Hints:
Blueprint: E1 2-7, H1 11-22, E2 27-33, H2 39-46, E3 50-54, H3 62-73, E4 79-84, H4 90-98, E5 102-105, H5 110-122, H6 129-139, H7 149-152, H8 156-166, H9 171-178, H10 182-195, H11 201-210
Parallel strand pairs: 1-2, 1-3, 3-4, 4-5
Amino acid sequence: MIRVALVDDQPLFRGGIAMILESQADIEVVAQESSALDLLAMVERDAPDVILMDVRMPGVDGITATSSLVRELGESAPRVLVLTTFDVDEAAASAIEAGASGFVLKDAQPDFLLAAVRAVADGSQVVAASATRRLFERHRARAASTPGPEYNDLTPREREILIRAARGLSNAEIAAAEFLSEATVKTHISRILSKLTLRDRVQLVVYAYEHDLV
């Protein structure tokens, strides 16, 4: 069962999303909040696996809330899936850099929203990978820099998989390109994240673009 919390200041939108999620046997909506002011308390109380969070809210916005959550809870923080109106949104890019695991457009089809929630809960892939890449290509604030010594710890195979993952390929696509099983690719991805001290595949995309690897 995937435990989901909704944080959005629009009651009708929030209620509609809740109905879609609750229609699924494997998803449970455990909290609904109109702001991110008491986000940490909500997480401690309701223990969501995934937070669907509006990026633009009065008071504490989704970027600040995500950053605070990741800073306070680290690896134990729930996954954050940002809700945004535009597919190229600087605020969404900032939220992802702050630690969000991806984003979904507010006008997305229900099936895509459900797939995104499941993907983020699984932690196995970047949500809306192509749009995420466009965000970093357009809004990357820092100049590209040479990778640090942590990059030297990667094997040649791991470097190749890193680049393929940063380009938005799924585990299945990487497996086909590298003549490996999906399980082996998943193991490689886990090792890459560990060696580079990255939280998830979204941060892997950030790393690759910041260091001009793609």
